[in-house]
Design goal:
This protein is α+β, with helices and mostly antiparallel strands. The chain contains three helices and eight strands. It folds into two domains: 35 residues; 117 residues, Lipocalin. β6 and β7 form a beta hairpin.
Length: 172
């Protein structure tokens, strides 16, 4: 019995061609449709276009984002709290990236949103929703909604440079 008859060679040629064609189709689909989300794991300074409706004055907020794939955890704190390290590190916002848009929601204490550190700590939690469009570089543009209010306020998220602890012990 010979393995080189026309019927066997035709079978192997069709099988190998089918595998190569399938590989090419899957590769083309993956390159065009499956892309890793942008890396946005960083600190951002939020500049609001106007003051929040629940606050007497406007102030800057810092948003610390932690990313795992498309899922995000966020910590929203007053601008001056990172310097003093008086804020807990527990994430207060959760969300994910979908269609090049970052969506975060959660609850935040009012004194954090209003940046009033000398006011006695208020325990009332305010629902907050953030939507930010992702772009490849530069500042991020989005909007914030607090207290389930229908009014949204525009914001600009400016990435902050982080100091990495890359000091390694020197070997002599």
């Amino acid at each position: 019995m010979s393995h080189f008859n026309l019927k066997s060679l035709t079978f192997y040629a069709v099988a190998i061609s089918s595998v190569l064609l399938l590989f090419k189709v899957v590769t083309a689909y993956g390159e065009s449709s499956l892309k890793a989300p942008l890396e946005i794991d960083s600190n951002y300074r939020l500049m609001l276009s106007e003051k929040l409706p629940i606050c007497d004055k406007s102030g800057f907020l810092l948003l610390n984002l932690q990313q795992s794939g498309i899922y995000l955890n966020g910590l929203l704190v007053p601008d001056n709290s990172i310097k003093t390290s008086k804020v807990s590190k527990k994430s207060s916002l959760m969300g994910k990236i979908k269609n090049q848009q970052l969506n975060l929601s959660g609850t935040i204490q009012k004194h954090i949103l209003c940046n009033t550190p000398n006011v006695p700590k208020q325990t009332n939690l305010i629902p907050v929703k953030l939507q930010i469009q992702l772009v490849k570089k530069g500042d991020l543009i989005g909007k914030i909604n607090v207290s389930d209010n229908s009014k949204t306020i525009g914001l600009t998220a400016i990435p902050q440079k982080t100091k990495e602890k890359s000091e390694e012990p020197k070997n002599h």
